[in-house]
Each structure stands twice: as structure tokens, then as C-alpha cells.
Amino acid sequence: MPRRAPQIARTLPALRRAVDGLRARKATVGLVPTMGALHDGHIALVRLALRRCDKVVVSIFVNPTQFAPTEDFGAYPRTWKSDLAKLTEAGADLVWNPDAKVMYPEGFATKIVTEGPATADLEDRFRPHFFGGVATVVGKLFTQVRPDMAFFGEKDFQQLKVVTRMARDLDLGVKVIGATTVRERDGLAMSSRNVYLSPEDRATAPVLYKAMKETAKRLKAGEDMETVLAGGAAMITAAGFVLDYFEARHSETLAKVSSMKDGPVRLILAAKLGKTRLIDNIGV
Fold first, then answer.
1. pTM for the model
2. What is the pLDDT of residues 246-279, one digit of tens each?
3. What pLDDT, on the 0 to 100 scale, is given for residue 75?
4. What is the domain count for the chain?
5. 55/153 same-domain check
6. Which strands sit side by side in the sheet containing 7-9, from one edge to the other?
7. Which of 6, 22, 32, 42 is catalytic?
8. Distance between start and end Cα atoms, the chain
């Protein structure tokens, strides 16, 4: 029997009515924030949300405020029909799909300024505008949908830490859940931006995961952290990547660490391959 398509809300009054309807029987509500171009990683988040909550809302909004003028906002993949088919199959209850004028009406003048994990000298070093845009839009999504839980993938690890801290600091009443990164069979982390990779670059891309796994193995064996990280970085650049960073950080605070004793430790990286910028991380 075919599944029923989720409700779709595109205005705030429609969203409020729909969410009130979902909550009518004291149901718990989960939110999966996305920018669309959904892949199996997103659907894994939806399925996790359905296991943890009675009803699930998925937002699809390509957020202009987290793109710099030099970045790919205009070209970012938009695949509405495919997204809706995947969400119907997964069993999502409601899709929140506002346009930019609904999210940022004329005269909009308020932003959430983030510090702590947002100033860890990782993504913020290369994209200083990014976490302010993310925190503001996610803060709005949390107050619009008022979910009990919100689900984010660990692939965007710094983002997960920023959003978790924001929800806690602002008493938003939302429990932020991080979910394990979903990977292709060859180890490449699933990402909407993988569609930008040329066939040759796609064949090279799994080197990132291999380098992280090799580095983690050597760290666990007790080798010197600085030496091991340099070896991993050399493996990545030798494959043709331009490396932005490849670092070991504390898994909770994102503070720099100099040995496994400072842990728990997370390996975090960002690198460009051709015109595509990829990010990834693993726990050690």
C-alpha cells in the first residue's frame, strides 16, 4: 500500500496549524533540518527521528545567510520532487518549506552571535560568516516548529556542537541528537555536494576517510600525535587535495589536543578536490 505524502507547510500560520495538529494527542515531535538535495544520510536522520519521536517534521530551506558571496548558493542542488518522494517513502509527517521572504521578512535585523565551539579555528577560520547564519536559521526553526528533539548528522561536527550549545544556552527546550555519519561503500561521507565531484575526483575522494582511519589507528597505537597528523595530511595532499585543515580536537569542546591523554579525541578535516570542498571527521 503506498505511503501517504507528508503535509507541506510554506507559511507560518500553516506550519502552526500543522504542528498543533501533530501535537493534538500529546505526541512528541522531532525535527530534521535540511537544505534539501536529500540523500541516504538525511533519510537515516528521518528514520532515527521516527524511532525516537511520535511525529517528524523535516525542514527544507536553502539558507542564504550561511553562504558567502563566493560560495555556491545559486548552484546549490534543489531537488524538490525527489526529496518529497524520499520523505514520503521514509514516513515523514510534515515538510516545512518556507521561502527566503518567509524566513527573513523585509526589515529582518536580528542575528544569533555564536562563540565557544563556533570559534574553534576550524570551519570558522575559512567561513567566518557560516555559524552566525546557521545559528540564526536553526534558532528560528526551533522556535517555529517547537520540536522536542532535533536531529543532525555528525559529518558537520562543528555545526553539531554549535547548535547543541546554542539550544542549551538559550533554553530553547530542544534536545539536539547527533547521528553517525552515513557513508558510501568506499567510505566517502554522504553529502549533497558530492554531486559536484567529477568521475575522477569521485574516485579519489575516499582517500579522506582512509587517511583518517590510518591516522586514528596510529594514534591508538601510541605514536606521536604531531608526526601522525603530518603523515595523514601528506597522504591527503599527495592524492590531489588542497587541505584546509586536518586536526585532532577534543570531541566535546573542540579544544586543541596534543596527545590522546587530552581526549576524547576527534579527527576533523576539510579539503578541496577540484572545485568541491569536502568535510569529514571520525572519533579516535
1. 0.95
2. 999 999 999 999 999 998 999 999 999 999 999 9
3. 78
4. 2
5. yes
6. 7-9, 94-96, 55-60, 29-34, 149-153, 175-179
7. 42
8. 44
* Known catalytic residue at 42: yes
Percent share of the chain, pLDDT over 70: 99
Binding residues for beta-alanine are 66
**Sequence ranges of the binding site:** 35-42, 66, 153-156, 159, 182, 190-193
pLDDT tens, position by position, 72-108: 788 788 899 999 999 999 999 999 999 999 999 999 9
Judge whether 140 lies within some domain: yes
Domain with 247 in it: 192-283
Task: Please name the residue ranges forming H helices in the chain.
Answer: 12-22, 40-52, 80-90, 100-103, 123-126, 130-145, 157-169, 199-204, 207-220, 225-238
Binding site feature residues for (R)-pantoate: 66, 159
Q: Among 51, 121, 64, which Cα is nearest to 98's?
A: 64
